[in-house]
Specification:
Elements: H1 2-8, H2 10-28, H3 34-52, H4 57-61, H5 67-74, H6 76-84, H7 95-106, E1 126-128, E2 143-146, E3 155-158, E4 160-162, H8 172-185, E5 188-190, H9 198-203, E6 206-211, H10 227-234, E7 239-245, E8 256-258, H11 265-271, E9 279-281, H12 291-304, E10 310-314, H13 319-332, E11 338-342, H14 353-358, H15 363-376, E12 384-388, H16 394-402, E13 407-410, H17 412-417, H18 448-472, E14 486-491, E15 494-497, H19 498-501, H20 520-528, H21 550-553
Parallel strand pairs: 4-13, 5-6, 6-7, 7-10, 10-11, 11-12, 12-13
Antiparallel strand pairs: 1-14, 2-3, 8-9, 14-15
């Protein structure tokens, strides 16, 4: 035991001895003895402080050398990313995925020699079924018109757009580069809940204006929604659609606070908030609290905006709650023009680890559920669906379109296009490439003219690749992808056709008096849903028993 104790303090003792030797040498001879005396003396004082402090147990037991642990830990992500991480390790994006974006953004070779590095026989592998009669798609400007019967200003949206990322989370130069790139390539940028900044306007690109629980830029001094301010802002022709944010995939059900110290004059201007006061984003909206209330809010925004497309974004949680929204659509006759499904794999600037890892439904399951819920209510053709959640390649887009999406959004994909290296320091204000920071010196690294070209190039090249794989499947338009165009390996020796793994359920089945026995869970959940409230009619203890029969339903 004494020997182990001696080993722990050996470095500290040697430093003290060296410091003493060189201090004596400096006193007697001076000269070069002064430098090592100063160095070893300072290190010895660090060791004394380590022994006295009470915050870090490692330093109390291993004075001086214990700091090596913290030094190594500080650049562990970089060591892992550049030296240890494999091409297929997703943390959260693999090196292969990032390289694809970098190559397409720069316009350099994005082909691969020697074959796939995927484990094609492993569970989770997905592939596209190609046609014996492929076609060549010369035009890759694929679009979808968003806007239902009640919409007066429908928008022709690209099949691939920039997902919601706020000014404040991203730097001014990053926002400007993204928006200019969107303008160059003809697609849209979602503003995120931080509202429209001067940098969004300067770029001139199409905008999807997101309204969250904080109602930034369209709020009263007490934080409630201001119809007058919204109407004035929504009249801007640069705004093409309005999106109500109910939740986001990375932290569904979680509000937020921007501390007063981080609120710059530009952020205050964009959000319409005062300086010197913490900026609160509540978990829930104050304008509505019921499914019917949400529908009336959608109609109010549509009227105030002059008939622009209005929809909402959410990550699916309680499926019954979404069915309550569908019932409210039927009861009020009010339909959103679009719904954006964000998956639990979505990104964020900062969120509690429990929310990032374990709250919310993944995108593929959420997308399929919403698509089939709208089909079941007979209103799928009236509402467009967007999908978001780690969608960065043409294959990702094609798969989402096959499972029910009308278009896709990407946040981190376009961040990679302007130089993000996945340092995962977005919440520290020390982004090494100037994207996720408000530090004016750091954000100078984002050269707007160059990065905007990369954004446009990444979009064009991805759309070109989407056209190529659609052609390989024998399709003229990627919107024609269906589940059967994809195969999903469930186990190492089993795979399912997309129609089996993610089937399209019959149109209107939730309203049909003749029940389909295989869809019993859908009917039960539909019974428990209410247009008047999000609250459950009963608290379940175990599996729900069947509560009705076809006869009762008729």
């Amino acid at each position: 035991m004494a020997m182990r104790t001696l080993q722990r303090f050996l470095a500290f003792g040697i430093l003290g001895l060296l410091a003493l030797v060189f201090v004596i040498g400096a006193v007697r001879a001076g000269g070069w003895f002064l430098v090592p005396a100063l160095i070893f003396g300072l290190l010895f004082l660090v060791g004394v402080y380590d022994l006295a402090q009470r915050r870090h147990a490692v330093l109390r037991n291993y004075p001086v050398i214990g700091h090596l642990r913290f030094i190594l830990e500080s650049f562990r992500p970089e060591i892992r990313q550049y030296l240890i991480e494999g091409d297929r390790d997703e943390v959260p994006f693999s090196r292969e995925a990032r390289a694809l974006v970098y190559q397409r953004a720069k316009g350099v070779e994005d082909k691969r020699p020697f074959g796939t590095i995927e484990n094609v026989y492993g569970s989770g592998y997905t592939w596209l079924t190609h046609s014996a009669t492929p076609v060549k798609n010369a035009d890759s400007d694929f679009r979808v018109v968003v806007g239902g019967p009640a919409c007066k200003q429908p928008y022709s949206a690209s099949l691939y757009n920039i997902s919601a990322m706020s000014f404040g989370a991203l730097s001014a130069n990053a926002i400007l580069a993204l928006n200019r790139g969107a303008k160059l390539a003809g697609f849209a940028q979602d503003t995120g809940e931080g509202s429209i900044s001067r940098y969004h306007r300067a770029g001139g690109g199409d905008l999807i204006f997101q309204i969250a629980s904080g109602y930034f830029s369209c709020r009263n001094p007490d934080g409630t929604f201001s119809p007058e301010r919204f109407a004035e802002l929504a009249a801007d022709p640069q705004i093409k659609m309005i999106e109500i944010k109910l939740s986001q995939g990375a932290k569904p059900g979680h509000g937020g606070m921007l501390p007063a110290a981080k609120i710059s004059p530009e952020i205050a201007e964009a959000r319409g908030i005062p300086m010197g006061v913490d900026c609160i984003s509540p978990p829930a909206h104050s304008t509505f609290s019921t499914p019917i209330g949400l529908m009336h809010f959608i109609q109010q925004l549509r009227d105030l905006s002059g008939g622009k497309p209005v929809g909402f974004k959410l990550c699916i949680g309680h499926r019954r709650e979404f069915l309550s929204m569908v019932k409210a659509m039927l009861k009020t006759g009010i339909r959103p023009d679009f719904i954006v499904i964000d998956g639990a794999e979505g990104g964020t600037g900062a969120a509690p680890i429990e929310f990032v890892n374990h709250v919310g439904m993944p995108m593929l399951e959420g997308l399929t559920f919403v698509h089939n819920a709208l089909r079941g209510a007979g209103i799928r053709d009236e509402i467009r669906i967007g999908a978001a959640g780690k969608i960065i390649s043409a294959f990702d887009i094609a798969r989402a379109l096959a499972l029910g999406a009308d278009w896709c959004n990407s946040g981190r994909g376009f961040m990679f296009a302007i130089g993000c290296i996945q340092a995962q320091s977005c919440h520290t204000n020390k982004c090494p490439v100037g994207i996720a920071t408000q530090d004016s010196l750091r954000q100078r690294a984002v050269d707007v003219p160059d990065k905007s070209q990369r954004v446009a190039r990444f979009h064009r090249n991805t759309m070109h690749a989407l056209g190529e794989i659609a052609g390989a499947a024998g399709l003229r338009d990627p919107s024609d992808f269906m589940p059967y165009h994809f195969m999903f390996r469930q186990k190492d020796n089993e795979f399912l056709d997309g129609n089996e793994a993610y089937p399209y359920l019959p149109d209107g089945f939730l309203l049909d008096p003749d029940e389909i026995p295989e869809l019993a869970d859908w009917y039960d959940r539909w019974d428990r849903a209410s247009a008047e409230t999000f609250d459950p009619p009963e608290i379940p203890f175990g599996r729900f028993a069947r509560r009705r029969t076809a006869a009762k339903r008729a």
